[in-house]
């Protein structure tokens, strides 16, 4: 499946789940939903229909979505009178408005928990990790190729001696140059994840190989390229078991918390960079996420499912920040209402939110430009134009 389709599907799930939170909270509190939309309304809708007083729309700019509530932009007139305790958002109390605004973040957290839960329920619950020397490439007609060694094989022992790193392995193999040596190889199904490579059922075998004393230039004694990869040992069990289900949920909560901490740490780094006048590092916009989606999707469904969980955590944390135009910014105005004992003037809130939206769009454009420059797209395009 093309990367752009997978990217669009992932984005759709994240945005729709978030907006579904606002939608369901409003419905539960009997607040009228005027529009439920995917995409940002800077142009006419590509598609729309109305059902039970709610318009459902899709807009061309798909990097977002929204739920438009009755009375969200100010008091509503009903029969010539200002609405009070009716079907509009404006007349509701602070707690109900906070529930509606915060429901999107809650749904993104629940999506992350569910995604991690499914992942660990199928792949297994992580129980530990270990670095292993892994074969990345095997040269043709090399001793390793003739011995049947394949990419992604893990080298555990050489003549019964445990191999703990690539440098040790290279030294041991060179010392056996010209002599047949027995190597313990491990292979089996694996699932690449952000924390490491999750191991499925594995097989071990002992392979005899004769390292070369004088290998060709650019090749080692065995003719392999190796690397230290982190491997996650997983514990599989039946989800019908209460103990197993609890362990899966516990690990899902733990992983969600870990990624929340990483996102907050990354945001602190971004803020520090901006204060120092530097370009933020380690941050990706839509272009960078698009590229990452392509890499992860190539590894299979479960790595992609983990990416959905991680992105959902990112979206939840980012949206709760007290930045105007985000959910956190809207909640900030409600908190100010608590402390000031009065409502912030609507005109002030709208103006601040407009500034916030302009800031976010500018930031997204700058981060996307940084992604493009990092990937070398502009330089490649310039080379094509000038013909050099």
TrEMBL record:
Q: Its Gene Ontology biological processes?
A: proteolysis
Q: What is the predominant subcellular site recorded for this chain? A: membrane
Q: Which SUPFAM superfamilies match?
A: PDZ domain-like (SSF50156)
InterPro entries recorded for this chain?
A: PDZ, PDZ_6, PDZ_sf, Pept_M50_Zn, Peptidase_M50
Boundaries of each PDZ domain copy? 114-189
Q: Which UniProt keywords apply?
A: Hydrolase, Membrane, Metalloprotease, Protease, Transmembrane, Transmembrane helix, Zinc
Q: Which GO terms describe its cellular component?
A: membrane
In which domain of life is the source organism classified?
Bacteria
Membrane-spanning intervals of the chain: 6-29, 100-123
Q: How does it sit in the membrane?
A: Multi-pass membrane protein
Task: List the molecular function annotations (GO) for this entry.
Answer: metalloendopeptidase activity
Q: Where in the cell is it found?
A: Membrane
Cofactor(s) in the UniProt record: Zn(2+)
Family affiliation: Belongs to the peptidase M50B family.
Which protein are we looking at? PDZ domain-containing protein
